[in-house]
Amino acid sequence: MKQSSTVPDGLVIVDKPSGFTSHDVVAKMRGIARTRRVGHAGTLDPMATGVLVLGVERATKLLGHLALTEKEYLGTVRLGQNTVTDDAEGEITASTDASDIGRAAVDAGVAALTGDIMQVPSKVSAIKIDGKRSYTRVREGEEFEIPARPVTVSSFTVHDVRADKAADGTPVLDLVVSVVCSSGTYIRALARDLGAALGVGGHLTALRRTRVGPYGLDAAKTLERLQEELTVMPVAEAAAAAFPRWDLDERRAKLVLNGVRIDMPEEYAGQGPVGVFDPAGRCLALVEEQKGRARSVAVFA
C-alpha cells in the first residue's frame, strides 16, 4: 500500500452520484487515494448529486472552514404532495390537488422564503438533537421538535413551472428552481415550507449542488474519472480560491511557522480565516486576526 507521505495534500472536488451518502464517497476516496486521512466539507443527501468537497491529508484542516461557505443548488420542487423525508426518498404522507396554484402565488411564497429566515430542518436529517441524530430519533419512533435556526437564502429563483400528475393521479406542479444559500440550509425544507404556505404540501424530487464556495461543477470529477486519474487541487490553490491572501516575506513566514503571532494588517480584520503564503507561493497556514495579531487556526507547512 502507498504510504500517506506520497499522497498529495489538497482538495478533491467530486461530482457525487445519486444514491451515495457523503460517507460512502469519503470511503471510496480513501481507497482511491490510499490514505485514511480524507474528510468532507459538509454533507450532501444520498438523493442529491453534484459538488462534494473532500480534503486529503493535510488539506483536511481546510474543511471545517470551507464548510461555512455559501452553496448553490439546482432542483425540482413538487407541489401537491408531502413525504416523510421532505424529498422523493420518503413515502408520501398526503396528496392535494395543486392545479389551482398560480404563478403569482408561487412567486409570493418563494419571496417569503428568501433572505434571512428561520428554518426548521427536516426531521429525517443528520442534525443532532441533544447529541442524537434526528433521523435516529425518527426511526425509534420518538416524538420531538427541532428548533428553528437562522439561515440565509440569498437567491431563490423559479425557472419553470410544469403541470403534471403524480403516480396516484394527483394533479401536481413541478417547479425548476435554483437556490443560493448559507451553510446549514436545507433545500428540502424550503420545498416543504413552500408547499405548506401554499396549502398543498411540497417536497423535493431532484437536487444537484452546483457550487460550494468558489468550487463549482467545472472543477468536479466523477468517482470513475478519479479512479482513472486522481486530480488533487493543491492546498495553496484551494486556499487562494477560498480565502483572502496574505503574502509574507521570508522572515515573517518563519515567525508564523514557529507559532509567533505577528502583527496583522488592518485590512484583514474581521474577515475570518486568511491564507498566509511564503515567497515561494506555499500556503503556510490559515490565520485569524485577534487583537491586531495573527492567530493560526490551521497550519499546513
State the gist of this model.
This protein is of the alpha+beta class and 301 residues long.
Description:
The chain is an alpha+beta fold and 301 residues long. The chain contains eight helices and 18 strands. The chain has three domains: 4-69 and 213-235, Pseudouridine synthase; 71-209, Pseudouridine synthase (2-Layer Sandwich); 243-299, Roll (Archaeosine Trna-guanine Transglycosylase, Chain: A, domain 4). Strands 1, 2, 3, 4, 7, 10, 11, 12, 13 and 14 form a ten-stranded mixed beta sheet that branches. A four-stranded mixed beta sheet has the order 15-16-17-18, with helices on both faces. The protein has a two-stranded antiparallel sheet with strand order 5-6. The model is unreliable at 1-5 (pLDDT under 50). The longest helix has 12 residues, at 22-33.
